[in-house]
């Protein structure tokens, strides 16, 4: 097993992603539901015609520190991600200004009692769906998720710069309702469309421009965080960010660069099909993330489940009662989403360093992971706040 077991809990009191969004909201005339970021108070941004927030998926602080260079020189402060440290939860926090315990998106796979299905919320499809399944077979994501987009609380316009295929997805329609879309292709398109979102004519008022770059995360999942191709992509990304910063600086527009999470190398995998006795104790497939899995135990089998995990899985994961993690503040302060308890299940399995926890349903393809996230290790939870003011 690689590395010591170190945990970085999410900071919601001024040192986390949630607080950065609160600073942006207050600076642009809104009334945030969380304290502002200590490292970037709203006064530092007030008066700008626009503020650009670029979220680079998978740009963990440790990855950036290994890289060094001009981006690291712009480090304003380290922040924490949300729990779980994953795109579905963290990006939704950016688009709503709420922690996962309030917006209710608690990982990649979420048990939605409203639909009676374990759901991949970003592609908006049931986990067990076959190739013929269509999103048209389901209600709109907005009617089920009932998210409260940040754009509705801002007096000025909000713009979303994202890859063209992601603009009109069911998730985007739910989480980014009210945001003006600016689709792009490639790094050059990201820079050009972000500048266009700042300059284009929109209703008056200071505007928030939220840009999103996903390729760094995809590469790390497929190749691992330490692969040379990841380093090469990071160099190209660095050049694009510096170009964007220069073009925005000429207009007096601040650029903030943030991540949703970092990734860790995958060394070992716990495959649930190799533990049929454990699988028989569960009433649903694993939900959440490979590094933080939610377990739904058959009624009356709780002690057997606890005993199996303690006796057979102690080297690869730790067991928590879900309600204890909520009470400890992992998912953010109350008020909580009315379905939060259902979406977390009975127990949470926290993977050890180097491990992922996986089950595969009939018909699902195997997707080997070289890099993963969702846990609370420093590499996953610590994200950089880069400021070009």
Name the helicity range: 25-40%
CATH-level-4 superfamily name of the largest domain: Alkaline Phosphatase, subunit A
CATH class of the largest domain: Alpha Beta
> What average pLDDT do the residues reach?
95
Assembly type of the chains comes to single chain
Shape type: globular
Report strand order across the widest sheet.
2-18-9-1-8-6-7
Distance between the termini: 42 Å
Question: Which class best fits the helix and strand makeup?
Answer: alpha/beta
Percentage of β-strand residues:
15-25%
Runs in which pLDDT lies below 50 for 5 or more consecutive residues are none
Chart the SSEs and their pairings.
Layout: H1 17-27, E1 50-56, H2 61-67, H3 70-73, E2 75-80, H4 87-96, H5 100-103, E3 109-112, E4 117-120, E5 125-126, H6 141-145, E6 158-163, H7 170-175, E7 180-184, H8 186-199, E8 207-213, H9 215-223, H10 228-249, E9 255-258, E10 264-265, E11 268-271, H11 276-279, E12 287-289, E13 292-295, H12 302-312, E14 317-321, H13 322-327, H14 340-344, E15 347-351, E16 355-358, E17 371-372, H15 378-381, E18 382-388
Parallel strand pairs: 1-8, 1-9, 6-7, 6-8, 11-16
Antiparallel strand pairs: 2-18, 3-4, 4-5, 9-18, 10-17, 12-13, 13-15, 14-15
